[in-house]
Design goal:
Number of strands: 6
Strand content: 25-35%
Largest sheet: 4 strands, antiparallel
Radius of gyration: 16 Å
Oligomer: single chain
Helix content: 40-55%
Strand order of the largest sheet: 1-2-5-6
Shape: globular
Length: 102
């Protein structure tokens, strides 16, 4: 019983690390947790050259890049496309957030 208690947190930490080892994995994981698993798996991820160039100084400070989903999901509340995401590097892990159409 005690061995099971020890392994569950260890497995969860390993899974968390694996899902954040690359920018694309972190972005797909974020989109899944936003409630759009199909879009997370089927959409192609490309670097958003427009935002990466225009926001270059800010992104450099954050150690981040902006990615775009080629087939973005639609947010039901606003009927807007969830297209652009910023992916920040923290140590050896990556974390994604919705960037919007800024």
């Amino acid at each position: 019983m005690k061995k099971k208690r020890i392994w569950v947190p260890i497995v969860l930490v390993i899974l968390f690390i694996l899902l954040h080892l690359s920018p694309k994995l972190a972005l797909r994981t974020h989109v899944v947790f936003m409630g759009h698993p199909v879009a997370a798996v089927t959409s192609e991820l490309i670097q958003d050259n427009y935002h990466n160039e225009t926001d270059k100084n800010q992104l450099k400070k954050l150690d981040a890049k902006v990615y775009t989903l080629t087939e973005p999901p639609i947010e039901e509340a606003t009927q807007s496309e969830l297209r652009n995401f910023i992916v920040k590097e923290v140590g050896f892990l990556y974390f994604a957030e919705y960037y919007g159409e800024v």
